[in-house]
Amino acid sequence: MNHNQSMYDLSGNVALITAAARGIGQACALALAEAGADIILGLRQKESAGDLVKEIRKMGRGVLPVQMDVSRLYEIKAGVKEGHAHFGHIDILVNNAGIGAPNPAEKVSEKDFDETLAVNLKGTFFVSQEVGKIMIKQKAGKIINIGSQAGHIALPSEAVYCMTKAGVSHLTKCLALEWAPYNINVNAVAPTFIKTPGTKKWLDDAAFLESVKERIPLGRVGNTENVAMPVLFLASQAASLITGETLMIDGGWTIQ
Length: 256
Fold this sequence. Notes:
Blueprint: H1 3-6, E1 14-18, H2 23-34, E2 38-43, H3 50-58, E3 63-67, H4 73-87, E4 92-95, H5 110-138, E5 141-146, H6 159-179, E6 184-191, H7 200-203, H8 206-215, H9 224-235, E7 246-249
Helix pairs in contact: 2-9, 4-5, 5-6
């Protein structure tokens, strides 16, 4: 392995990825495992890990699925504790859990509002806090939040989602500043529309897909690997001097 490759080598690291069962979370888990990390899968339903566990084991990595609905503080605490007890350290956290069903602002109920904030903001904060305590003791760590271009632009019928993702970007800066003395890097990525099981029903609509592509200067939506590879970069030594940043993965949408 030459020096450049070794900068991306995560051997000996343990990574926790929330909402890792499918889509971007699953792609991040596989990318980090392929780079050498052992993996803790934070899952809303622990039994949903299935084939992903087998796939990671096939690579020769350790893998532990834990029950972690990030809207429940006791599940966050228990899941992080279990992962930490199993591996002895947690070096990388990918806060991937996020929800945001479209709804015109005038129709948003208090329940919709609370549920979106509970996962996207409260969940991201308290998972970071719980893992952050471990990283502070270790005097090292990498946290990568999965934000969205929606935190930087307005999207119709996504007021609450946009607001929470803007919050994730700013939280990234706040934690980066506060935890820098402990050698903890905190960054975020902000993807555009990505083909995942969660976005399928919208992107399968040809007219919607066309309208989205027209807004993206590169002319295409992303796949999960387009997000997982930048996450791997931010988790690696190659990005050791980057903190507090939100990296846009949007094909140029927000530069216009």
